[in-house]
Every structure is written in C-alpha cells, then in structure tokens.
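Co-fold these.
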Amino acid sequence: MATVSSEPEEVVRVSELLETSYDVNLLHIQSNLFDPVQHGLKPEFRLTNFTDLKGVQPPDINGFPNVHHVHANAPVGTGNLTSASLSPIGIGLDSCLIPLRHLGLYLVQTTDFFYPLVDDPYMMGKIAAANVLSDLYAMGVTECDNVLMILASSQKFTAEERDVVMPLIIQGFRDCAVEAGTSINGGQTVINPWVTIGGTASSIVRAEEIIPPDGAQPGDVLILTKPLGTQIAVNAHQWLTTNPEKAAKVRTILTDEEVKQAYLRAMHIMARLNRNAAKLMHVHGAHAATDITGFGLMGHAENLARNQKCAVMFIIQNMPVIAKMGQVARMFPGFGFLQGRSAETSGGLLVCMPRNKAAGFIADYKRLEGHPAWIIGSVERGDRNAKIIDKVRIIDVPSHDTADKLW
Amino acid sequence: MATVSSEPEEVVRVSELLETSYDVNLLHIQSNLFDPVQHGLKPEFRLTNFTDLKGVQPPDINGFPNVHHVHANAPVGTGNLTSASLSPIGIGLDSCLIPLRHLGLYLVQTTDFFYPLVDDPYMMGKIAAANVLSDLYAMGVTECDNVLMILASSQKFTAEERDVVMPLIIQGFRDCAVEAGTSINGGQTVINPWVTIGGTASSIVRAEEIIPPDGAQPGDVLILTKPLGTQIAVNAHQWLTTNPEKAAKVRTILTDEEVKQAYLRAMHIMARLNRNAAKLMHVHGAHAATDITGFGLMGHAENLARNQKCAVMFIIQNMPVIAKMGQVARMFPGFGFLQGRSAETSGGLLVCMPRNKAAGFIADYKRLEGHPAWIIGSVERGDRNAKIIDKVRIIDVPSHDTADKLW
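Predicted complex below.
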C-alpha cells in the first residue's frame, strides 16, 4: 500500500471542530447486557452459541469463484433502460438497480442475513434490519417500500429458549423497520442448526431518488458516518468469557467494564440506521457512497473507487474508532484494523462529497442523528484505488470518559 | 372432514378426455440420476446428506406463533392505496402485494428457500428457482423483474465437493430464471451447516397484471396444473438407500426402477415453471389461484377458500398423482396423501375458473407446456372451506407405461 504524507489542512480543521463537541450528545441506548435469567432462561444461555462463527465475521466468499461470475454475467433486468441517466448495477456494490418496464422507474433491491454476533436477541434483530436497509441508503435511497424477513430458529433451541428468543429477534427487526418508515410484508421462517436473521429490502424509485455510486470528483472529501471497530469490540467482549488467554491480554490495557462499554457502543452503532445519512447526501450534493460492512473500511473504499467514472484515488487520513478499540487493535494485529481490513457489521456510510459541502453535512447529521460524522480523507486524481496514509490518525469515539453517557 | 358424494358429470368428462391423450407428450427431461463419480466425487456423495431434514418436508411453523402475528400486524406498504381495485395482501397467501408511491403500481414480492431434497445439485437449483417464482405466478403475475439468490454452502463440504456442487446449484437456479425470462441481480452467499438454496422474486406491476386470489365464484371449477406426490416419490427413493425397512415395504409393490422413474418425474415436476399456467389464467379469465407447496393440496385449498370474497366451498373430486405413488401413499398413511396433506415442493397452481373456460385452458396449457392439467373439483356455495369427497379418484400420471417417454 502506497502512503501519502500530506494531510490536507481542512480535513483536520473540520474533524477537530467536531471532536470538541460530539461528546455532549445524549444517548438513549440500552446500557445493560441482555440477561437471560430475566427472561426465564438459564444464566449460561448465549445467543452467539447458536452458530459456530464467532463475532463479527469477514464475509467468506473464497472458493465461490462461480458465484460472482454468475451474478456478473446475468442479463440485467427484463425491461429496457428507459432513462439514459442510470446504468444498471449488478452485485458489485450495495444494491442492484434494475430499470423497470414502467417508464422512468427503477427497482433498487438488496438481501443480507447472518448469524448471531451479539447475545442480545432484540438488538440482533435491530442490527439485522439496519444492516439490510443500509444497502439502500448507500445509494441515496431513503424510502424502502417493503422488507421481507428471513429467519431461522435453531434446531438446538429448547422450546423455552425458542419461545423467548425468536419473538425478541423479530421484535427488534420489526422495530427497526418501523423506525425506517417501512414495514415487513412477507418472509420465510425455517429451522436450521444456526440461528439466522436478515431480509430483503426493496424500493421502487425515480432516477432522482438515487445517487449512483460513481460520481466522485477529485477535490471531494470522504465522510464516514459511524465509528469503526465493531468487530474488535464484539470479539473482545466475547473473549472475556470464552478465551482466557486473549482475555488476559485485553485486561492488561482495559477493565472488563470498559470492554462491556465498547460492546454496548458497538451494538448501538450497528443498530443505527443510515437513513439520515442518505437524506443528507441529497441535501448536500453527495457524489457517491457505499456502506462499510464485512470487507472493512479499505475493502469497501477500494470497491467504491474501482466503480468511479473519474480516475480518482481515495486517501484515508483519519479512522474514528469506538473508544479504546484502537488500543486493542494494536495488540491484535490479526484484525488488520490499521490497514482498514477489520470487518464491520452495519457500519456507517462512506460518502464522497464536495469539500465545501462537508461541514454542512456533518452539522446537519449531528443535529438529525445525535451523533457525529467525520471527514476521514480526500479524493484525488489516481488509478481508482484507495490508500491509508502512513501515520493514520486514530480518533477515539467518544473522546472523553463519560460515566453516565455513552457519548 | 365432511364428504360430498355427487361428482359433477362435466368434471369427469373433461378429465377423461385429457387422460386419453396426455401420454403422447414428449419429455426432454433428465433420464438419469446424478452420478457423483462422473463429477469426480466419491460414489457415496449425496447432496441430501447436507441437511438433517430428509425429503420434501412439510413447513415447520409450529412454535412460532409470534412470527405470523408479527407479519399479520405489520402495517402494509408505505404508500397510499392508489387503486381501489386491489387490497394489500400480507403473508397469508403466496406473495405480498404492496401499493407503491407511484400511481397505479404494485410491488408483488416473495421469498422462499430450503435445504436439499434431491441429490442432483443442478436440479436442486432449478427446483428452488421454480419454487420461488411460483408465488408470483399464483397471483397471475407473469413477468418477474428481479431475482435475488439466497445461497449457503455447507461447512461440511470438502473443498472439492463445494467446487463441484455449488456451481451446479447456481447454474440450475440461473437456467430456470433465464427460462422464466428474468435474471438474477444480487443475492447473498454464506457458509452454513446445511446447504441452502432459494431466493426472492419481485415484480412491479399494474393492477391489470394481477389476478387477486379472492374472486372464486360458485359454479367455478378447480384446475390443478401439476400432478401431486412429489414428497412420496422423493422419500420413497431415499428409503431405497437409507431405510431398509420402508424400502422392503415399497419393494412389495414397486421395482426399484419404478421408484427411480417416479423420483425423476418428481424432480422434473418440481423444476417446471408455473408461468404458462399464469399466462393462461389471464387468457381464460381465472378467478383466483394458489400454488401447492408445503401444506399439501388441502392446506393450500383451505387457505385459498378462506380468502374468498364470496362464501364458497372447494370440493375436490380428483387427485392426479405421479404414477404408482398413490399405491405407496396407501401403504404409508402417514403422508396423509388421501387427505390432501402430503407436502409438495414447487407444485402446480390450483386455479378457480369458470366451468365453460376450463376445457380451453387445459387444451392451451397442454399445447404450451407439453403437459396436462386436470379439473380436480368444483366451487360451490359454502363456508369458505375445502373438502375432499369420500371416494376421491386417484389419477395416475402418466396412465400408460412408456419405456422411453416418461409421459
């Protein structure tokens, strides 16, 4: 990875401005861990035991060369492209974009599902819904017309566990859909060894509702709307009870309470919708965006850069991260966090927008969302790739210790 | 279940007419079983070993009271109902129907996925695609605008097995989508203990493209567009290698070759699209339809009857079944076949239509599809329920032994 040494002055200025104020935002988030006993389950019940995959996982698509081959070669849509302004988009980015038979309309659609990565069933449902909807938001689509729910209960659940856990997952999924102004009509429920939750999000839109992910311009800045580090926080928390060796290492720098706080923050971050970010992309003239999920910041930045019409390069100078998870990342280089390779689930949007619009976007975002966004880099002329500068700046979120407010 | 003794004369006449001719249809279907060795796999490789659920399974939704509760209570759609002719439809029937923000348009959408029920990966892919598309066809929707593919490879596959099997499943799924005039844009691929295949089918339509499943009239007939018995054929074939006791019982009435033929027919039936049936529903003025899947003929007939605007009763007099599977059904009453409870996968459409249109529908269907459809019953005034007559007539399909043609 090449490095870029000059850090644009303006980037620092705007992000510093924010850093001084964002910890005043109130958080009305769950401040306690899920307690199985309160729900009549055994104290040792852990939702994350109902999959063999632990924590936030990078996507495993190795060994499926033919999967993407099939997607990429499939003819796109059944109708004719009736508007010259948008090209069909296949699986490469967040959602597919299908020109419809009905003049000027497009179907924007995505599906995503996964296994338990947190132990709180309600939060797991919310995260799954926020995650699938995020693929629409990354295209600037703010209205979802329908959600289908994909659900599997575990064959290993006792009847009691199933009757407690599955309704909570469904409730979380549904509450998040309602919060997004959409609803769940249809779905499929099966029995599986591993608990599964996810869905399909669909929107039928006019061209002007979409911000195609290919319009980045040299001189744009890169904005990120959620902090990174969900994988690190979730895994570190899991190690406390499952991996004594790694837990001992974590405890050399963090208290258990600090790990728990990071985990609660991660859950809250993953459960937040990217809808306000999508709305503000329109208000402030964003040029392109993607959401940060399984491939990590760099994986998605590279993917977005590759898709640009202009020959640009994304330069990343700042990495906002859940407080203290930067330290854990340095201790466990296997996450690849400093290289931008640590997986995220339901991460923020990475938005390319004109430099002179960024401060307005960030101010409006904070007002609407109650949370900060950060300028994390810049768009320059280049070979449609992405880079992290050598001495990337890690921004702890929140920056101050707050006992009663998470940030 | 009440019984009805009178068998309308016309029903018999039309179905007899067909019975004398349908065996002349040529079949270009796979006439051999999947041979793992030909694909470089061990002879004992069986795709159906990559799930614990064996054969065609009835849906397991017991113990999920809250799932349907949630679906049923979800607000429907985000837009206003702009056409008075159609009510939104939730999860009760085959697809959801969402009025869109764009005047006069509706989103018709469905998702379905399952585990391997046959050992041929390519055919498994075709069956999964035909199955999910069928939910659109049941509503008279003939054009699918997009398919998302839902796929899980088994963590228990060797790399070699995965690289042979997954591309075949994908190819089958894709070929079926292309045959349906649609395409696959998007999807999700994961690792799971059990192999999973299915998808989402979406169509954006004007009201006139939909045949709402609530218009059955007293005096209508019931037409079925595929023979029943897929569960029996698939399970009987599986018993030959996995259940010596049941296999011995089957062998008292059938040769292994006959079981194999029934299994090949079942695969072919499940892989056939219901698209021609949907097209002809429009041509011949069908009043309502559903597709026959996991709840069996009666489960779906009851569900459809419950949904009717008119107070009607569905009376079933005939049950076309894959040749010789009626005999197996009598030997294993646990299938509940004679009560219409045997599960089907990707079964035919059950169509309500005016009696005087039925012969035209059936003739056109045979010409387009190369396979017969049957009048299996009638619609009378009643309490929105369905019944099978006491001495229901089992129609073997095909009716003649044909060594070189399957039917």
